[in-house]
Amino acid sequence: MSLERWENQYKTHSVWSLTQDIQSLLSSNEEHVTPDERDYFDRLKMAMAYISELGQEPVLIVSMTALNNLQQNLAQIQSTVTMWSNGSGSNYLTSAAESYLDAAFDTVRTWPPSKDRYTRGLRAAAAEFVTDAQSAITSIQSRVGELQSSIEEATTNTYTDFSRLLETARGQIDATQEEVARLNVDVTNMNVNVTAQTQRLDQAINAYQTSYSEAEASRNESHQRALEKIADETVSAAERARTQSDDLLTTQKASGQRILDEITTLHEQTVQLVNAIGLTGTATEYGKYSEQERKAANTWRLGAVSAFAFSFLLFLATLLVSHIDEKTPWQVIAVRFGGSIALLAGGLYMAKESSQHRQEERRAKSVQLDLAALDPFIVNLPSDQRESIKAAAAARLFVERGASSPVTEQQNETSPLPEGVAPDTLRLAQSLAEILKGKSA
């Protein structure tokens, strides 16, 4: 009867419920464990699984004092783990997994072995570790599946975009081919008309020659004077037919030349349209570049104002906190005001950078406005004047302004050209302006 009473006291001791509470606390906070805390966390979980198994096999010679000592050690572990779960820092988890857990192991190590409780504890700890490992593997496999799905979706989207662009290009090529085929049909029809007119002329000449032969055969016996008259009439008719043929051929040539002039006009309009699109795109890219420089200038200006403000506040704080008099060494004064001076220097540097970005913004904005206003200004002028004005504008925008800008050299060394404006394009415009200057001189 006394043995049963002791076993009940052993099994119902509060140390085992405390062990379960610690296990529940660890399980509820496992998702917050960082990679640096994982080893300590796993050691605590395996230890709690091992100690929990000790409560399943009562040992006769383990006294209540030993159980109470173990309870005190576990209470310290519970307290530090609770502090860690509340966000107090990973050092609490480290203390629980090292010093406090070692004390608990020292207490349990003094207990005598009974049956296979040590083996069961190790098996429980190993089973807990295997369960955690399987969960981690399952999570990794799920993440790999998500990444594969993302890659497949990105591949599908890329193929769809490429197909759409290919279809658009094919449509444009087909439209161009249809236009060329239509022009070929017009030229063919023109050739057919010329051939038909030539055939009709040949038929008329043949008809006149036949009439002449018939008249000569029927009037063999007529007077030579009548034959001469008929011959004169025949020659006159041939000259009129030839004159008509020449007039008709001249008309057809004039019609063909008119069609060629229309094609030339369309070609010139197409070139002007392409030039206008390129000019508009260049002006747009300069506008984007100007906006980028404006944002950079504002950012540097905000940094400069902040640095000045913090420097002034740090200077005031140093004056209020420090007790500086005529006996204070200059080294101490330099150290105490060093932070304020450093912030002031940083503010001056940021102000200088803001000023340079602001100058570059104004230059790019000026170029954008000039390019945007160029075509509307010269649209109604003759083509020669338009080309001359464009050449002069290119010289002013890309040669003279680039040579006179105070930040051109720094821009060429440290900042790229606006997106869409290639260096070869800039060099070509500069060369064109220099050639035009040489011709005008």
Describe this protein's structure:
About 6% of the residues have low confidence. The protein contains twelve helices and no strands. By secondary structure, it is mainly alpha-helical. Among the domains are: 114 residues; 171 residues. 13% of the residues are buried. 86% of the residues lie in helices and 0% in strands.
Poorly predicted regions? 115-122, 403-422
- Helical residue percent? over 70%
Strand content: under 5%
Please describe the biggest sheet, giving its number of strands, its sense, and whether it closes into a barrel.
Answer: none
Total helical elements: 12
Number of strands: 0
Radius of gyration: 50 Å
Which structural class do the helices and strands define?
A: mainly alpha
Rounded mean pLDDT is: 76
- Could you say which overall geometry the principal axes of the C-alpha atoms support? elongated
Straight-line N-to-C gap: 127 Å
The sequence of SSEs as H and E is: HHHHHHHHHHHH
Keywords:
441 residues; mainly alpha
Question: What secondary-structure arrangement, pairings included, does this model have?
Answer:
Layout: H1 2-11, H2 14-28, H3 38-54, H4 64-85, H5 90-109, H6 117-218, H7 224-321, H8 330-336, H9 338-378, H10 383-404, H11 408-414, H12 423-440
